[in-house]
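Predict the holo structure. Ligand: D-glutamic acid.
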Amino acid sequence: MQIQKGPIGIFDSGYGGLTILKDVVNALPQYDYLYLGDNARAPYGSRSFDTVYHYTWEAVQWFFSQGCELVILACNTASAKALRSIQQKNLPLKNAHKRVLGVIRPTAEVIGNYSRSGEIGILATTGTVESESYLLEIAHYFPSINVVQEACPLWVPLIENNEFNNPGADYFVQKHLQQIMQKGPAIDTLLLACTHYPLLMPKIEQFIPGGVKVISQGTIVANSLVDYLERHPEMANKCAANGQIRFCTTDSTAHFDANGAIFFGKPLKSEHIQLGH
Ligand code: DGL
């Protein structure tokens, strides 16, 4: 019997997951990828558990309808607020052979290795911070590490509106960096726990104290996927490998193509799809 193969699904509330997709494609260029940004309903960062779960599960079902066997939630907010319910409640019912993975666990598995001081700062959306997912996951892998969190609710809108390079962004970047360093003076590692934030890297580096490392998730998630597919050849076998990438958005394709290229680092062409009603 011939195995049904499909692209690897990569989901984000908007453009942020393209920063993850870029590193995943670099690490595993042979596979086919299907990217979906739910731009029409972004940002997710300030939405309730129920809403983020409902939106994310709709997106995952759409990936399944497109033939995906493996879907990565390349959005911390969706990973924090929807992944567990999807894995524990939804998949066993009808899709036990499919896999949905997130970005929080792979990050938590390694982030402690970056710190010498034993104190790590997490910069994230309000939703990710409130979920306390990073506190729980990091405590599991690195029980002696102290984790300090800071929600940066205006960073995603600044980035989505292309203001991340402008002087107006300085105030909000500096404010949250000062606040997290006050809460955790021994922090030597700052994790950008939102897939949008790597675009603010030049400004963040301008305002952090010397000796503090800033870590973004792209390569961490990419390395973890390489490892996962090596450990799960049955899943690797179900991933189509023609080196093709398809981009979809729930909002304007013209906006997606213009803004998405900044996140992905290359020109791209998207298709419009609809989720929910
Ligand atoms: N990119 C999403 C994340 O990683 C957040 C963006 C949003 O608020 O929708 O958390």
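Residues 49-65 form the longest helix (17 residues). The mean pLDDT is 96.
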